[in-house]
Model the fold of this input.
Amino acid sequence: MGSMQLLPPTASSHAADMDWLFAALIGTSAFILLLVFGLMILFCVRYRKNSKVERGDRLGRTWRVETAWTVATFIAFLGLYFWGADLYVGIHSPPKDATDIYVVGKQWMWKIEHPGGQREIDTLHVPVGKPVRLVLTSQDVIHDFAIPAFRVRQDALPGRYETLWFTPTKVGEYRLFCAEFCGTWHARMGGSVVVMEPSDFQRWLEAQDPGPSLAQEGEALFRSYGCSGCHGTASTVHAPKLEGVFGRPVPLQDGRTVIADDRYIRDSILKPKSEIAAGYPPVMPSFAGQIGEDDLLKLVAYIKSLADRTAQNSQTGQAAGSAERPAQ
Amino acid sequence: MTTATVTGKPDEPVVATRNYLTEEGVTLRSWLLTKDHKRIAILYTLSITFFFFVGGAAATLIRLNLVTPAGIFTPDIYNRLFTLHGIVMVWFFLIPSIPNTMGNFLIPLMIGAKDLAFPRLNLLSWYLYVGAGFLALFAILIGGVDTGWTFYTPFSSLYSNGYVVLALAAVFAVGFSSILTGLNFIVTIHRMRAPGMTWYRLPVFVWSNYATSVIMVLATPVLAITLMLVAVERLLRVGIFDPALGGDPLLFQHLFWFYSHPAVYIMILPGFGVISEIVPCFARKPLFGYKFVVWSSITIAIIGFFVWAHHMFVAGISLYAGLVFSLLSYVIAVPSAIKVFNWTATLHKGWISFDAPMLYALGFIGLFTIGGLTGLFVANLAFDVHVTDTYFVVAHFHYIMVGGMVSAYFGGLHYWWPKVTGRLYPEWWARIAALLIFFGFNLTFFPQFILGYLGMERRYYSYPPEFQVWNIFSSAGASVLAVGYALPFFYLGWSLFRGKRAGSNPWAATGLEWQTSSPPPAHNFDVTPTVTRPPYQYRPEPEPQDV
Amino acid sequence: MSDAPVIPQPEPQYATAEQQADTASFGMWVFLATEVLFFGGMLLAYTWLRATYPEGVAEAGRHTKIVIGSVNTLVLLTSSFTMGWAVHAAEHGSRKALTQLLAVTALLGLLFLGLKGYEYHKEWTEHLVPGLNFHEDSVHAQTIELFYFLYFLLTGIHGIHVTIGIGLIAVMAVRARRGAFSSRYYTPVEVTGLYWHFVDIVWIFLYPLIYLAGRS
Amino acid sequence: MKAPPLPLLLTWAALLALLAATLGLAYVPMSGPMNVVVALGISVAKALLVLALFMKLFRASALTRAAAAAGLFWLAVLFALSGTDYLTRKVEHVGDLPAPTGREHQPGNR
Done:
């Protein structure tokens, strides 16, 4: 059995701010509560039916009293509003140097991918003192990534990214929950956030089997989904070659030109007929519903990694990922 | 309109032999086909009581499950329990509770009318309610629903394995019951007032039911159409709420909360009305700041529509929308605060007695104040990022809806019990129940604020062990609360047969409903009253009030 | 044409017949306010769809049957006119004109439903019914399906309203024929008229949203 | 039956004229959202005609007009406040953000 804990651990840059806000809210409420309860009890005792106390003149012009307490409460409330709004904007403005960690929610687990390709499920390792931005999405229903010790949470919606950032301030292990009801095992969709010293975190990262990077995995998927059958260099099908495509303009059949960015690549996989590259027959089938959100990420990453390669030197398709991963 | 419609029989002094309970016959048929608003109110009271105990049973099982961190039930059963609890309590108890029982019974009496404007519509509304109720029970019995009462897409439209469409149909139907009631009240209050009953002579109870009705009429259709869209989406696998189909789940949330936030005010505004009747009566003083109380109700009904997205601060709405909705939420806190101050000020220099209705009313003010103040917490953008979807929110809205609304419901039930039944309830037992409910409630729900801040999430059938202590407090409180809620069922039932005869005005209260006999005759007033004075003209000593 | 002044006794909850008449018409207005919000939810969904996928909606709009839609608008506007005329006839106590005009209004309503049914049939054969037989090769297929999803809901619910309206009008016509109304008592006709005009107004907005999208 | 009263007849004629106008204008290419704006503007005009003359809102009591306005007001609230979200939302569809490739990520590189 647990103890009679009153406050959760305070382990992020938001947490202390939030606790101060909490204190202010409690202070304001306590003042109003004591006022109301105090007066109620006072009146109930003093003016009980059998009490002989003098009633005398009652409050006359009520509108003065009314105006006074209306204005007073409104001003107090406005103060609280601005405080909260300011903090909220802060919670939604990640610093530029935050590390991006990708989180995909799925009934009923959190799949987490570090920039170096390290992967974990239901556990998130982060270094203390470094800002982290989580990029959240979901593969099925709405989930919510909640870390009470950091005082942050954010819904993860299917089909789009939401972000969430924090700077852990205290080494330790904290609970991680799914806060938006997502089905049978909603209560078990969680785990822990492990905050480590930066050096320990480096060691942890290195000790992880980094596995293939996203791009490398994407390459494997590129074959297993059969993409290489048409887009591969050896293919006889007249399909666009993807080397050097990313980030460059692509002329379309309807005369427009689009930049081959993340969106374009993704749409081309899911809705291939929406923007057909000029000079190619619209023969590609749609992969909507067949490729999961995390696989899609990997495919896009792979095609990106082909950006500065030409068709010749990518025969082996050895993605540069492992070599160029940030120094660890 | 004049007093030309005299039916002319003299009133019996103590026991009204000619009353609505017997006047039109006592057969089942005469009840099931009645058009008398008072009888329909009784029908509603019986059915609502039934659903209150259904929802209460689910709540009991939920609290039982949460005694241990591992939980007792399987997650699927637990998920169905809280969904059942939510759907039944929200749509089959809280929303119709005060309006459809006391509102139905009292509004015509209070404004000096013979009935509501559309009695047949009133009966239809009850049949819709009962039909919807059976549909909901049927969905529960054949396997239940596991979406939560909020039916969030795409979970409800694609992933849930419960009988979602049936539940949606039930809520759809009960929505129409609610719309018809609201329509009836609005038209009645506008068109059926007795001579001299100007707007500022209306009791606050009537005003707050009027405000409630406006919300019912204007918000419920949006819920109905939204739930229909979800049902079609689930049946046909095509729809606008699922991203996989090209839709937007936040569109569902916007539409859902456009109803469901104002619905909170549907639940609480009639409670304000009840308290505004009880407090002056037992303080023997006019209501302090009558016009402010009245206009704060209307303001709440209107601004209540402007704040819905404060349920969505972490759901992915834009930053700007969050700022707007939070500000508006703070604005609506002001009229609520005004009411609390006015009730408190009404006590000043009064002659206060502490009969059971007054105990409930004082309990209401206390619990509602806590609920309202914690509303400031969750309306706060940043703070909501930490506590939304936790037990903090659960505790907050239970303080409003259970601590506030149910206290008001019981307060009103006791206050008007003599009028409705012609008999007095046993005072001692009633006070015991009021105290049990107050303390049991606080024991149940106050720990949940702490749990919420600690990070215990809603809708969890099992939880980390460090949360157990507070959960045990909460469950212990729930058992006290259950006793408190069960008690009135017994002593009120007893009083139906053995209670003392009440007479027409046992509280020496003002208000037209007390001018007619108890129980009132089928057509309410033998002579249509003419009103010459504002409400709540209380004086220290009980004296006969004339009209 | 002269008919005996028929003024039924007011129901017991009313003091006078005027009060009852006022109340009925006010009740209908409040009901119409509900209806506005009922359609409003779907209109918000439509607005969202159109704002999110403008091109798809434009393409979907071009699939709609503009001739039927326009003729139907004409039919409904005309029926509103005959309804207004019927109320006018009731005000002047001309029983025969009232009966005939109500009948014409109901028939126009039936014509509307018939054309609508024919339109649905064509859409079925063109595989435009979402969830049941939808098939579309366009790149905007998903949006077109969503558009038609909303189309069938909006027009379907509107069609239910039309059907109810026709029923009400038919009842009024029968009652008028039996001489239930007079220049001093015709509230039911007036209230039915309010409902019918509202159904017309809904269509006035549905018409450009559905049929005129993407025509330019 | 007698001839219809002139105001009704004129209203009907105006409605039909507006119908023709909206149909014709729908085929005229206009810039941006002007087609929708024009079409809805004409619809509003038609609806006002029906409300004012067929439903006799001109002659109705203030209370009736308030009831009619209430529905529209709350509809406007639904649209306007939903707009605060939709018009300012920066939706990051999956795919809009740079996916991590494991090689390009440098601190400060976003």
User: Anything to note?
Assistant: The interface with chain D takes residues 96-97, 99-100, 102, 113, 115-117, 135, 137, 159-163, 213-216, 262-263, 265-267, 293, 296-297, 300-302, 304-305, 320-326 of chain A (CB under 8 Å). Chain A is about 35% helix and 20% strand. The longest helix of chain A spans residues 13-46.
